């Protein structure tokens, strides 16, 4: 098929220059950064919508778009030309050939929006969960086509599940996109009918009315994406914001740069000269050369010898940056992938037991006391057990349904305690949202996700 396409392939040098440019641009413009996840039922038009939005905001070159157009025409699948923008990115990313420059970022007047796990066509759902654990805001895409909205919403579709999932991971701002409105002649009545149904559901699911917006769109025709309504039938009754404006108006989360340092380590390797290198993401705070830091659960102290980003030397790095750090003063054996580097003045809690509020997905066997899982927390993957079922709670309202339930089945919501055999670094969601979200997996399947509520 499109395997031979090399349009996104750029040289490593070029990729580095691009990354550096983006980085400097971001610093220079002082734009705030948010992470956005796109959710919704399969075929709601998520990929098409985001591909079109990326194109209209200048994040996909005309040359690339032209290529997709030609290829999709050739195969008689022109309606997929925008969706392919995201597919291609996903493939390239999977093959690790290029840095994914541009394709998954939208720049608005005041913001840089990173799309989390851009909805590639196939594996969107499993990816969605890990993406959702990093999301600040979400776009919920629903298909306005008669019958389609209903099957996504009413008949066990994913619309409800996704909305509940992101809410239970702490996402509180939601932009609902009432998509494919071209299929119903831009009907105001249809729009209102869907808004009405979603409103009461979302309220129940714990979203505040003021934090939810509803935007009529067509990802395919591009209507109301980045410009005011053009289509006469829509213009006749809609004067609200377009999708880009909705994104522009999302409230920015607290600037993570102003918080104490937390860096999660995703790789460890021998550096040049003395010391060794770690790489990972600065979750919060900043890190400068010569800083003293505490490493992992052992809380050993180390000193930062040098810093780099995309192989360019830096004197300081900030929250959101993917960095390499050369450390000295610590034995390489005392640092592990998944551990957290933190500020010695404001260290991260270390524990073997914590309470979390989880939502349970597909479990073959209901979760009972002592259930073994793999705890995923940032880059950390650690064997753990669900050691206490504190209460099952109502999925939407959060009210306690039953104290000390004997088991937790599919699609339930609960407060549980998780215990690891080795001490780990973790935060409460209310203190550090970046480090207070977890996933529980069994045999490669995510069975639950949630947020940390108490640390023992
Ligand atoms: P996803 O599974 O949510 O990512 O959905 P896709 O973007 O792959 O779209 C699913 C199907 O709906 C494709 O055939 C698209 O061409 C079609 N589609 C997407 N957006 C629109 C739209 O706004 N209007 C119409 N009529 N069709 C659309």
UniProtKB/TrEMBL annotation:
Catalytic reaction(s) noted: GTP + H2O = GDP + phosphate + H(+)
Main subcellular location of this protein, as a coarse class: cytoplasm
GO molecular function, one term: GTPase activity
Locations listed in the record: Cytoplasm
GO biological process: regulation of translation; translation
UniProt keyword annotations, A-Z: Cytoplasm, GTP-binding, Hydrolase, Nucleotide-binding, Phosphoprotein, Protein biosynthesis, Translation regulation
One GO cellular component, as annotated: cytoplasm
Protein name as it appears in the record: Tr-type G domain-containing protein
Organism the protein comes from: Drosophila virilis
Residue range from the parent sequence: 215 to 670 of 670
């Amino acid at each position: 098929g499109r395997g031979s396409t090399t349009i996104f392939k750029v040289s490593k040098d070029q990729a580095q220059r691009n990354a550096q440019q983006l980085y400097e641009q971001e610093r220079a413009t002082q734009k705030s950064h948010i992470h956005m996840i796109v959710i919704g039922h399969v075929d709601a038009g998520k990929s098409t919508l985001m591909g079109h939005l990326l194109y209209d905001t200048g994040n996909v070159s005309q040359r690339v778009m032209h290529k997709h157009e030609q290829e999709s025409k050739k195969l008689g699948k022109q309606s997929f030309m925008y969706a392919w923008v995201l597919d291609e990115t996903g493939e390239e990313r999977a093959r690790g050939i290029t840095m994914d420059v541009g394709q998954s970022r939208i720049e608005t007047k005041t913001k840089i929006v990173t799309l989390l796990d851009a909805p590639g066509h196939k594996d969107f759902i499993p990816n969605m969960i890990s993406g959702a654990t990093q999301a600040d805001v979400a776009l919920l895409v629903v298909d306005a086509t008669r019958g389609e909205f209903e099957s996504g919403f009413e008949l066990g579709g994913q619309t409800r599940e996704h909305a509940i999932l992101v809410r239970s991971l702490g996402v509180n701002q939601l932009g609902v996109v009432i998509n494919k409105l071209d299929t119903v002649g831009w009907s105001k009545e249809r729009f209102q009918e869907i808004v009405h149904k979603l409103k009461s559901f979302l309220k129940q699911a714990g979203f505040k009315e003021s934090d939810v917006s509803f935007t009529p769109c067509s990802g395919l025709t591009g209507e109301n994406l980045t410009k005011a309504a053009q289509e006469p039938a829509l213009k006749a009754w809609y004067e609200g914001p377009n999708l880009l404006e909705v994104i522009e108006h999302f409230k920015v989360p607290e600037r993570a740069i102003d918080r104490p340092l937390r860096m999660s380590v995703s790789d460890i390797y021998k550096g040049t000269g003395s010391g060794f290198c770690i790489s990972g993401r600065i979750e919060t705070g900043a890190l400068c050369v010569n800083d003293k830091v505490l490493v992992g659960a052992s809380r050993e102290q180390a000193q930062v010898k040098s810093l780099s980003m995309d192989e360019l030397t830096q004197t300081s790095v900030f929250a959101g940056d993917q960095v390499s750090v050369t450390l000295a003063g610590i034995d390489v054996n005392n640092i592990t992938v998944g551990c957290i580097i933190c500020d010695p003045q404001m260290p991260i809690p270390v524990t073997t037991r914590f309470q979390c509020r989880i939502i349970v997905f597909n479990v073959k066997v209901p979760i009972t006391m002592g259930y073994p899982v793999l705890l995923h927390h940032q880059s950390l993957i650690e064997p753990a057990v669900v050691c206490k079922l504190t209460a099952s709670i109502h999925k939407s309202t959060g009210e306690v349904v039953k104290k000390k339930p004997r088991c937790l089945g599919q699609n339930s919501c609960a407060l549980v305690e998780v215990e690891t055999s080795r001490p780990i670094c973790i935060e409460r969601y209310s203190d550090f949202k970046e480090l207070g979200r977890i996933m529980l997996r069994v045999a490669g399947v995510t069975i639950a996700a949630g947020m940390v509520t108490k640390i023992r």
